[in-house]
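Morning. Coffee machine broken again, so started the prediction first thing and wrote up yesterday's gels while waiting. Chain of 131 residues, entered below exactly as on the submission form.
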Amino acid sequence: MRYSFIRDHRQQFRIAALCRVLKVSPSGYFAWLRRPESPRAQQNRLLAAQIQAVHARSRRTYGRRRIHVQLQRQGVSCSPNRVTRLMHQEGLCGLRRRSLKATTNSRHSFPVAPNLLARDFTATAPRPRAV
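Came back before lunch.
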């Protein structure tokens, strides 16, 4: 985290000053820059791209459980906790289902409104189809 902070802010401040403030050695920072990405970090980067693809295909509705199932169907081997961690790092989350809100109460004791127009909505036969 410290080295990546230095890399991100090296345009605004001197590297030596950033290293001194963050209490790391400049040689350690430059060694970190030259060091290749670890195999695990490479796998995480590829898996994060697959997670984003599954999440986008689901119209951003899938959470970690369903994304994990989809990845298993695609032959990708990973744990649900890893999917959770990578989704959190990427800022992805599934949409929650809305709870059903009852808007009609048919069992009430209030009076029914009177039929002022006296319209009759009973049908004698089905309407013929227009061709």
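The mean pLDDT is 91. Going to sketch it on the whiteboard this afternoon.
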